[in-house]
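Hi team,

Filling in the usual template for the complex we talked about on Friday. All components are listed, including any nucleic acid strands or ligand strings, so the model treats them as one assembly.

SUBMITTER: L.P.
PURPOSE: interface mapping
COMPONENTS: two
RESIDUES: 914
SEQUENCES:
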Amino acid sequence: MADQDTIDLVKTIEVDKYKYGFETDIESDYAPKGLNEDIVRFISAKKGEPAWMLEWRLEAYRAWTHMEEPTWAKVHYPKIDFQDLYYYAAPKSMAAPKSLDEIDPKLLETYAKLGIPLKEQEILAGVRKQGEKSTLDDDGNEVTAGRVAIDAVFDSVSVVTTFKAELAKAGVIFCSISEALREHPILVKQYLGSVVPAGDNYYAALNAGVFSDGSFVYVPPGVRCPMELSTYFRMNAKNTGQFERTLIIADKGSYVSYLEGCTAPTREESQLHAAVVELIALDDAEIKYSTVQNWYPGDAEGKGGVYNFVTKRGDCRGARSKISWTQVETGSAITWKYPSCILRGESSRGEFYSIAISNGRQQVDSGTKMIHLGKNSSSRIVSKGIAAGRSDNTYRGLVSAHRKALNARNFTQCDSLLIGDQCGAHTVPYIEAKTSTAIFEHEATTSKISDDQMFYCMSRGLSQEEAVALFVNGFVRDVLQQLPMEFMAETQKLIGISLEGSVG
Amino acid sequence: MSIALQPTAAEQAFGMSLPHRRMEEWRWTDLRARLDKPYPSIDTAVDEKSVARIMAASPLAGIAKYRAVFVNGKFDATNSTIPALLPSVIPAQAGIHLSIKENRVQSDSRLRGNDDGVDDPLVVLNTSLKPEGVTLHFSSNITVLVEIMHIATNAAPRAVALRNHIEVAAGASATIIETFIGEGDYVLSSVTELELGEGARLDRIKLEWESAKANHLSQVVATLAKDARLNEFTLTSGAALNRQNGTYTFVGQNADAKISGAYLLNGKQHADTCLVVDHKVPHCTSRELFKCVMDDHARGIFQGKVIVRKHAQKTDGKQSSHALLLSETAEFDAKPELEIYADDVVCGHGATSGDINPDHLFYLRSRGIPEAEAKSLLIAAFVGEAFDNVENDDVRAALVNFAEDWLRQK
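RESULT (copied from the run log):
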């Protein structure tokens, strides 16, 4: 039983213990502390980028210097000193690895510890044994569909991308964005910044100026990506901001499912993470983007933790295209994240499924925007917020229909569950209907697990913790079911861990 | 973003800066841009004939037994039907104490619109316009209706203000009507304070039927003591620009507030209701229901916020806003917000927006009802749900009539 797993896990882990809080002792190359145009030039030069890219970065940086930090979100934190951060940190041994053999074993160890066996997968898939996929079938215990290609990002650089060769056979480009800038500059130039412009908002502008790596995916027309793609982000170096940029393009009639996972070491001081994700779906294409965000949330007193200020936006550019966001947010001291869909194409569809769990002193302000521009576009939002400890959990969402978005359709459901009387759950939905043909429905509820429900379960022999785990898993089921199979079980465990110490 | 803006003509006339769309609560109603000319605070000569005509035109004419009438912001003794006026005491056995106050300006802490100590701009505006108004004190169970009526006559653009204070003593009950009706181009600023004592009960019906050019800016500040019960209904159908703020605070346990309203808007009308229901104590119940009908280019907005403070356990708060858009160019914006700091509560909100359901229309037509009539029936049923919250039969019937007339004119 998955529920039993959750409870067992909760029991084995002490309160306040973040499982992924270890630090990897590895020498890193840093850019000088602080932020100025030279740092932007430094990063661009490190990546060997074309001149237009540097220009783009500088423009974004200059725009950023004139922008003001947004304060509208329901989160509180001390002012960030942007001059007291390193904007670039790369493991030293990572100059230019050609294959896994050249990668520092310490790095591989880190990922293995996080449960991401890059090496094994690479061998199984066989960068060196290309074409011999029969070995997999012989093993019998590995099914092709169950495999996942991973792009592992360590601080500012992409360490390794697995299954590249096999993906290439299908015509799918999956690599780090630095590599894409070198090898597919035309594609990058065409799409980069077309969904989230360089000056879109404060953190997006900062990211555009200093982003150091991220993933790039291009799925050619009519191709169904043969496996799940995944990026794993790891923050390690001290006082470092992580700024990654992900760009996914699904060409006409293609399909791709992408998963992102994040962890960071336990540190006393807070770390900044400001990412930008751009998704582009052309005619009939579908992108499924799932996130399991488990950055270090800070200790029980709110010391340390990651500030997660992320801009994620998908553009359903083509007719009948579909973008689906699924997120499980359990980590970060502060989350400021609104994965959005611009439903530009006729009959395009946007989906947003979210589980946001906050415990301790975490502050979450997350939600989505569904901007209906095309005729017959539809969207669905299911958000489940769980607040425990002394945390604040806010859903903030916008659903809007343009005058020309005839027959736009939206259904929104956002439910909050409060565990304990020191936490807060807030819902701030915005609904803008500019045409009568749009049909919008919005529902929100806030509740706690009722005494009757607890009594019923406990009278049947469940302990208090078991009963709570049962209800929470039931509460989030709608969203869990949207996750790729591989991550469902893991997520259930994660939910259990996040809520530890909140009961009773 | 703090940008120093050049004061507009209207701002200069008011001597204050007006809220604009960069402010969160005003994102859909840019008052600064909407008030595009100065509205000075000047006395206007009153023409008795037009006052009589406007009064007779009121959909609620003749329902209330006692009436305090204000014309262009000034108390009108001749048309008021409260026995024994200034200094103001109605026969004691009636249980109503009324006083007319001139230039009522007082710094009342309860009028602070929000918790950060900044006065709500509508209250500041009202204060700066030196409003007149009545203080009504109900000390027993009053079954007769009392109406406060404001009439604006056609004259040069101007600003007029009204500030009323209604107190219902412990155990007392009352029904009060506030009517706003007029002609011409003006800004009407109204602040109503409602104070409900222990176990008090107040039914308040507000009819906003200002002139088609008018700007109606109102604020209600209500406090509910233990076991108090407030039932409020607002019908919004007039004015080019309408902004209604309401703050309802529970200060005693087991109190109950029912706040409902309906919009009947057409042309280029713009109506924005912004409510804050603040559950400061446990065991209180709040219900909000708004039914908004928009035709032509009209724009309806509903912003509702339910705050449940720490320790306000067993709160039961429900909020719903529904819009019916009758034309493709009509617009509805909503922001139903929940801010909850207590865990043992049941709170929810629902918001919908859409056209008349074609299935419903088909059903009625298949039963032989012509399309226009079927539509009227469906619209009437849609807003009717909110009208049902009006307890007084006469008032409800008059409001339903008004809605039917509105539909017929369509």
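MY TAKE: The two ends of chain B are 43 Å apart (CA to CA). Residues 290 and 321 of chain B are 5 Å apart (CA to CA).

Thanks, L.
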